[in-house]
Specification:
By secondary structure, the chain is α+β, with helices and mostly antiparallel strands. It is built from 22 helices and 26 strands. InterPro entries: AAA+_ATPase, HerA_central, P-loop_NTPase, T4SS_component.
C-alpha cells in the first residue's frame, strides 16, 4: 500500500489515533469516550474523513513468524486538529500521508488493484432507528476498509433544511400514522439546533472488501451482506463509481445529528497492538488478534505475575523475559532466582549465572550496598536483634564500611548478634567484591532455610540495584524477581521492594515480580504496595480461594474472578489501565522446550 499527501491539490492533515478498549469499558466510561468524539466533530469547520483499515503485520513470536491483520484508524482533515485532539486527551501521532490503494483498472462493479487483488466498494443507503455506538467499526470484522466522510452544516442552513423536511412530513401525518413519530423527532431536532445544543452533518459511509480472486471476493461479499442484513442496514455497490468510492470516500449522503454520530465512533479496539516498540506475547482469546505489549506506554514499568503452581507461570515469565531481551538487545538483565529455575535457561538467554551457594566473596556486605542507616536496619533483621541492639547498630553505623567495622564499634551484647556474620559461613558470602555482569542470574539453589534465603535475596537485590544506579538511564534494565513472596519475611526487604516499585521508572527499570502466593501480595503491606504500583498485572489460573482474594483486592468483576478459576495452562487475565484481556501466552516450540518445567513439554 502506497501513501499520498494531497488529494485534489488540497492540503490534508493526517492523524493516526490510538484506539481504546471501548467494547469492554463500563457504561460511564463509554459515555466519556463518546463525549470526546463529539467534542472533536462538533469543533470542526471543514470536512473530515475517518479511515478504519486492516493492514497485514508480520510478527516475530519467539522463533516463529506470523502474519496477522492489524486494525488502524486515521483521521484526515483539511484543517489542523492537534488542539482539539489534545484537549480531548486522545493519544495520536501525526502522519505524513494517508493510506492509498494502487488501482490498476476500474470495472463496472469492482476494482482490480496493481498487486493483482480485487476490491469492491459499497456505500451505506439506510439504517434502522437504533444502532449501537461504534457500529461502523464492527464492520471491520467483514471488510478491509471503512471510510466515513463527515461535512458539518452551518447552523442556519441546518435549521432551514430540517424546517423543509418537517414541513414535508407534516403534510403526510394525517394519512400516515408512522409519520407522526418522524414529525416529533424532527421538531425535537429543530429546537435543539435553534438552541445550538447539537450540530447537523452530511455523512457518507463507504466500505471496501478485498480478495485475491473472484471466488474469494464473492464469498466475502456474501458474508458482508449477511452481516449487514441482520442489523437492518442497507448498502449498495454503485456501478461505475468504484474508484471514487475507494479513493475519495464518495458515497450516498445521509444526514446525522451529533448524537446519532455515535455509530461512527472509530477509536475502538479490543486488542493490545502497541507497535512499533511492543513485544508479541500471545493471542487475545476473544478476538484471536496478537497481544503486542509496550512497557513504555504504561504509567509505570512494574509487572506483577501471580499464579498457582502448574498454571504455566514459569513458561509465561520466561517468555516475557526472552521477548523483552530480544526486542531490546542492549538492555541490562538481572534475575533474582531462589530455586535455580533460570540457571537452566541462562545459556539460551545468554546470561551470566552466579551461584550463591558455590561462590565465595560475592561482595554482599550490606555496607557495600546500602546507606549506613539502611544497612543497620537490614543487619538487625538478618541477626534478629532486639530493639536495644538495633538502636546500637543504628547509632554506630555511620562511618562503617563493612560489618566488621560495625562489629568492632558495638558493645559485647551487640557483637553476639553479629558473630556469625563476621566469622561464620555467611562471612565468606558477604566479603569481597565480585563483578556483576550486565546480564546476570543470581541463583540461590541449594540454600536451605527460608530466613537464609530471604537474607540472600535481599542482599542480591541490593547488589543489583547498586549496579542499576550506575547504568545510563536511557538503556532499559529488566529486573525479574522469582518467588518474590520470600522477601516479605523481612520488613527491610519489603521496604526495599516498595522503593524499587516506586522509583523503577525513573531508572528505566522493567520490574517483574513473580509469586504463587496471592495472600503475601494481598495481605502484606509491602505486597499490596507492589500490587498497587504495578501498571501491568498478569493473573494465571488460581485456586477458588485465591481467586476470591484476588477479586476483592484487585477489583475484578465476577466474570473475571470466575475466569481465574477456569483458565487453561498458559492462559492469563492481562490487565492494564486500558485493557482487560484474556490472553494465551504463545512461546515458540524452541522456547517451550527450554522454558517448561513439565517433562511432557521437553
Amino acid at each position: 500500500m502506497n501513501l499520498q499527501k494531497k488529494t485534489n491539490q488540497k492540503l490534508e492533515f493526517v492523524y493516526e489515533i490510538k484506539p481504546t478498549n471501548f467494547s469492554t469499558l463500563p457504561d460511564d466510561k463509554k459515555i466519556v469516550a463518546l463525549g470526546r468524539f463529539f467534542n472533536i466533530i462538533s469543533s470542526i469547520q471543514k470536512p473530515v474523513r475517518i479511515l478504519m483499515i486492516k493492514e497485514p503485520l508480520t510478527l516475530e513470536m519467539g522463533t516463529d513468524m506470523r502474519t496477522l491483520q492489524i486494525p488502524r484508524t486515521y483521521l484526515v482533515s483539511e484543517e489542523p486538529l492537534e488542539q482539539f485532539l489534545q484537549q480531548t486527551g486522545l493519544e495520536y501521532s501525526v502522519a505524513t500521508n494517508k493510506p492509498k490503494w494502487d488501482i490498476q483498472e476500474e470495472r463496472l462493479s469492482f476494482l482490480k488493484l496493481k498487486d493483482g487483488s480485487l476490491a469492491k466498494c459499497y456505500t451505506l443507503y439506510g439504517i434502522p432507528a437504533t444502532l449501537s455506538a461504534a457500529w461502523a467499526h464492527q464492520l471491520l470484522a467483514y471488510v478491509d476498509l471503512v471510510s466515513i466522510r463527515m461535512r458539518p452544516i452551518e447552523n442556519h442552513r441546518a435549521i432551514s433544511s430540517i424546517n423543509r423536511i418537517v414541513g414535508l412530513i407534516t403534510a403526510s401525518t394525517a394519512k400516515n400514522p408512522a409519520a407522526h413519530y418522524k414529525y416529533e423527532k424532527g421538531m425535537d431536532l429543530l429546537q435543539a439546533l435553534a438552541r445550538q445544543e447539537t450540530r447537523l452533518f452530511k455523512c457518507s459511509l463507504v466500505i471496501m472488501i478485498r480478495a485475491q480472486h473472484s471466488f474469494a471476493l464473492k464469498l466475502a461479499d456474501k458474508n458482508f451482506k449477511n452481516a449487514t442484513r441482520s442489523t437492518l442496514s442497507s448498502f449498495e455497490a454503485t456501478p461505475t463509481m468504484q474508484m471514487g468510492m475507494l479513493e475519495n470516500g464518495i458515497g450516498k449522503q445521509l444526514y446525522f445529528e451529533l448524537g446519532s454520530c455515535a455509530i461512527f465512533y472509530p477509536f475502538v479496539s479490543a486488542d493490545m497492538i502497541e507497535i512499533p516498540n511492543g513485544v508479541a506475547l500471545g493471542i487475545n482469546m476473544n478476538t484471536l488478534a496478537p497481544v503486542i505489549f509496550d512497557y513504555s506506554q504504561r504509567d509505570n514499568y512494574n509487572i506483577l505475575l501471580l499464579a498457582t503452581s502448574g498454571a504455566g507461570k514459569s513458561v509465561t515469565a520466561k517468555t516475557i523475559l526472552a521477548r523483552l531481551i530480544k526486542k531490546y538487545p542492549t538492555s541490562h538483565v538481572f534475575v533474582v532466582d531462589p530455586n535455580g529455575e533460570y540457571e537452566i535457561v541462562a545459556d539460551f538467554l545468554q546470561i551470566q549465572v552466579i551461584r550463591a551457594t558455590e561462590e565465595k566473596e560475592l561482595g554482599l556486605d550490606p555496607f557495600n550496598l546500602f546507606k549506613p542507616d539502611d544497612a543497620a536496619e537490614i543487619i538487625g533483621d538478618i541477626s534478629k536483634a532486639d530493639n536495644v541492639v538495633r538502636k546500637e547498630f543504628r547509632a554506630k553505623a555511620q562511618g562503617c564500611k563493612s560489618i566488621i567495622d560495625l562489629y568492632e564499634k558495638v558493645d559485647k551484647l551487640a557483637q553476639s548478634y553479629l558473630k556469625d556474620l563476621v566469622t561464620g559461613s555467611l562471612h565468606e558470602v558477604l566479603s569481597g567484591e565480585s563483578k556483576l555482569e550486565d546480564r546476570a542470574v543470581i541463583s540461590l539453589r541449594g540454600t536451605s532455610g527460608e530466613e537464609r534465603i530471604s537474607m540472600l535475596l535481599l542482599l542480591a537485590l541490593g547488589k543489583i540495584w547498586k549496579k542499576i544506579n550506575s547504568l545510563p538511564v536511557a538503556v532499559p534494565k529488566i529486573l525479574l524477581i522469582d518467588e518474590g513472596w520470600m522477601l516479605f519475611n523481612m520488613s527491610s526487604a519489603g521496604k526495599f521492594l516498595d522503593m524499587i516499585a516506586r522509583m523503577g521508572r525513573k531508572f528505566n527499570v522493567i520490574f517483574i515480580f513473580i509469586t504463587q502466593r496471592p495472600e503475601d501480595v494481598i495481605e502484606n503491606q509491602y505486597g499490596r504496595a507492589i500490587a498497587e504500583n504495578a501498571a501491568t498485572k498478569i493473573f494465571l489460573q488460581n485456586t477458588e480461594q485465591a481467586s476470591e482474594k484476588i477479586k476483592k483486592a484487585m477489583d475484578l468483576s465476577e466474570q473475571e474472578a470466575d475466569m481465574l478459576k477456569t483458565l487453561s495452562r498458559g492462559q492469563c487475565l492481562f490487565l492494564t489501565k486500558d485493557y482487560r484481556l484474556r490472553v494465551q501466552i504463545t512461546p515458540s516450540d524452541d522456547e517451550l522446550k527450554v522454558f517448561s518445567t513439565t517433562p511432557m513439554d521437553k
